[in-house]
Design goal:
Strand order of the largest sheet: 3-4-2-5-6-1-7
Distance between the termini: 34 Å
Helix content: 25-40%
Oligomer: single chain
Number of domains: 2
Structural class: alpha/beta
Number of helices: 15
Shape: globular
Number of strands: 14
Radius of gyration: 22 Å
CATH superfamily of the largest domain: P-loop containing nucleotide triphosphate hydrolases
Order of helices and strands: HHEHEHEHEHEHHEHEEHEHEHEEHEHEH
């Protein structure tokens, strides 16, 4: 690797590679195509990022003609990848541009016109910029598909293949995915040449640092149980099926005295970015989310994920759970199920290769408190203010008179991009 990259790694305190990095880097630095199967949180971003930066270092992009491309399914993951690679890109003087829906397209087209060697993008917005003449992919020599299985699940396959058809045919391709189902397999066969395959922490196995609990609860007790778990010490992400359910639970938590915030596709990108920042600083202790947040969120020291609504399939379960126990830390995933959901949950766990611990719980119960840290909430309503945290400081959790917390600022209505679902 270039000396500047090694110096940047040392400066960031990175001295020993994670297994997926040690496995793939010798091949990726040599220009081989790689198929990496790795659990989320296993260090994939630097595994592909360091190789991509090392192979692009020393080159200069023409306006509108990037040299390397990272495709990701969601805006949050695009931001996470950008943040992770930024210090290393600076060390080798490469310009990074992030191209995602929900943000002003003018600024993104300006970054591309100014020349950016590396572009991190969601498929829909990248297609929009290509259609406008603001970007061409014919100089892209290194292409990465991160979370390829979710791109397939979200219906991005037609856009992804159309984009891959535009990059340099002899270029290097890296594909990373937690699962390799039929759609991903099609991509591999069509676009990867004699790939080196590395499987690290395969998705079928439960993560050793993660505990899995299935808590049986009566329908009438579920809401109160959820609120008591949310009132615990420390942060928690709670997953529900719909935006409406997320907004409703968030408001109930705020009314109960729990510092909660909602994250779903109905929020504008600045709102989503602000909410995540508040959660990371502890200004908000409970993130209530739909599956939009199941990938692309990295929060240090998050030790509990709660499936208030059980996920639809084992892939969703693994990715929701992947928000905790990252980078070797420990954590727990708790799923609340009512009597009618037992059979489907048993099937889902079998498909995920997980043998969870089960318990019957009720609000105020000893088991609930022992497993999740649940406790009674204060009952004093709180309002999450627009934080001073945006200026680099944490602000108080409640202030003055109550204001509705789920109100949405008037946003400019933009033509929807393909990846607004993200």
């Amino acid at each position: 690797m270039p000396a500047q990259l090694l110096a940047a790694l040392t400066a960031q305190g990175v001295s020993v590679p994670f297994p997926i990095q040690a496995a793939t880097l010798p091949n990726t630095l040599a220009g081989r195509d790689v198929l990496g199967r790795g659990r989320t949180g296993s260090g994939k971003t630097l595994a592909f990022g360091l190789a991509l930066l090392a192979r692009t270092a020393g080159q200069r992009a023409e306006p509108r003609q990037p040299l390397a491309l990272v495709l990701v399914p969601t805006r949050e993951l695009a931001q996470q990848v950008t943040d992770a690679l930024a210090p290393y890109a600076r060390s080798v003087r490469l310009r990074l541009a992030t191209v995602v829906g929900g943000m002003p397209i003018g600024r993104q087209s300006g970054a591309l016109r100014g020349g950016a060697e590396v572009v991190v993008a969601t498929p829909g917005r990248l297609k929009d910029l290509i259609d406008r003449g603001d970007c061409r992919l014919d100089q892209v020599a290194t292409t990465v598909l991160d979370e390829a299985d979710q791109m397939a699940d979200m219906g991005f396959m037609p856009q992804v293949t159309a984009l891959l058809d535009q990059v340099r045919p002899e270029g290097q391709r890296m594909l990373f995915s937690a699962t390799l189902d039929r759609n991903v397999d099609l991509l591999v066969r069509r676009y990867l040449t004699d790939p080196v395959v590395h499987s690290v922490d395969p998705s079928a196995g439960a993560v050793t640092t993660m505990e899995h609990h299935v808590l049986h609860v009566q329908e009438a007790d579920k809401h109160r149980t959820t609120i008591e778990i949310a009132a615990r010490e420390g942060r928690v992400i709670m997953f529900l099926d719909t935006k409406h359910a997320v907004d409703r639970l968030t408001q109930d938590l705020l009314n109960s005295g729990v510092r909660a915030a909602a994250l779903h596709g109905g929020k504008s990108q600045p709102q989503r970015t602000r909410t995540l920042a508040q959660f990371k600083t502890g200004h908000v202790t409970v993130l209530v989310a739909t599956n939009v947040a199941a990938r692309g969120i990295h929060v240090d020291n998050l030790d509990l994920v709660v499936n208030v609504d059980p996920p639809a399939d084992h892939k969703d379960y693994l990715h929701r759970g992947g928000r905790t126990a990252r980078a070797g830390e420990s954590g727990s995933v708790v799923t609340l199920i009512t009597p009618g959901q037992r059979r489907s949950m048993t099937r889902l766990m079998a498909a995920a290769g997980i043998a969870p611990r089960t318990a019957q719980v009720r609000p105020g119960g000893e088991d609930l408190s022992r497993i999740t840290g649940a406790q009674a909430p204060s009952g004093v309503p709180v309002t999450i203010t627009a934080p001073v945290a945006e200026r680099g400081k944490g602000g108080p959790a409640s202030r003055g008179r109550r204001r509705p917390t789920t109100s949405v600022r008037r946003a400019t209505v933009r033509k929807p991009s393909f990846d607004t679902a993200a």
